[in-house]
Specification:
Helix content is 49%, strand content 12%. The protein has 278 residues and is α/β, with parallel strands linked by helices.
């Protein structure tokens, strides 16, 4: 089986490493950056690398597209005429309904596209951030569409489990975007807002402990990527922000009213829920 990874950044590089570790040998890489391709070959992540996707795509059975959200449909449209009949394409991006809508306009009937989302990203950019061990024990999501073949879905599930993912769950694209807005994108909203607060100063770190460091870790953000993720899922993310504002206002009100009882109730509810989760 020939597998191509399009985009050898932190996630694409990690997939290449994971597949190699799982015993797959015919792993090829595609990236517009020649130095990235060279590094991937030198480090044994891929068997061979290409800058021009058309040079290798006709021979590929599986194509893992690790590009920014707005690059996926244009890439497929540009290269759809050279895709091998029966090939399976898949993505790794954190938004689904918008991308599926874009792909429906360009995807040829001769190939299948399994929309997937590995729930273990990286704040690091580029191939230097590649590390397949981050996938071990992680969760992944597939968002099947009506045209998907069951065999295609099972094959992508198999690949994910072979490179270390513990659980691969199928959900609807709409459910995916609604929940990712809450559990992932909203967390980045909060982290960025805290770091950009006018309260931040040269003295901030003098007073900061572990909680501040943990909360602000994901504010070290890839602006180009996350802007696309936010805007492609803006309806769901706006709803998550609105729900958060309701809870924030409730907390604020207890302080304004000096309401010790209600404040403790809010804290207890949150503590109990956190313990249920973890």
């Amino acid at each position: 089986m020939n597998i191509a990874i399009v985009g050898l950044g932190a996630i694409g590089g990690s997939f290449a490493m994971g597949l190699q570790a799982a015993g797959y040998k015919n792993i090829y890489g595609i990236d517009i950056n020649e130095s990235t391709v060279r590094i991937a070959v030198e480090q044994g992540m891929i068997q061979k690398g290409f800058v021009e996707a058309g040079d290798i795509l006709p021979e590929m059975d599986i194509i893992i597209i690790s590009l920014y959200p707005n690059q996926i449909a244009p890439f497929v449209e540009q290269h759809k005429s050279v895709l091998k009949e029966g090939a399976i394409l898949t993505d790794v991006t954190g938004v689904k309904t918008a991308i599926i809508k874009q792909m429906s306009k360009v995807l040829p009937s001769t190939v299948d596209f399994v929309f997937a989302h590995p729930m273990r990203g990286s704040e690091k950019k580029g191939i230097i951030g590649a590390d397949h061990t981050r996938f071990i024990g992680a969760n992944a999501l597939l968002t099947p569409i009506s045209r998907n073949k069951e065999s295609s879905l099972k094959l992508i599930e198999k690949l994910y489990k072979e490179i270390g993912f513990n659980q691969v769950t199928r959900v609807s694209p709409e459910k995916h975007d609604e929940q990712i807005a809450y559990v992932s994108q909203l967390m980045h909203v909060l982290s960025v807002a805290v770091v950009n607060s006018t309260q931040a100063s040269e003295e901030t770190l003098m007073f900061a402990g572990n909680s501040f460091q943990e909360l602000t870790r994901i504010a070290d953000i890839n602006a180009d990527l996350w802007s696309e993720l936010f805007l492609n899922n803006r309806t769901a993310l706006l709803k998550s922000i609105e729900h958060f504002e309701i809870e924030l206002d409730a907390l604020k009100y207890t302080l304004e009213e000096n309401d010790d009882k209600e404040l403790k109730t809010i804290f207890s509810r949150a503590a109990n829920k956190r313990r249920e989760w973890y």
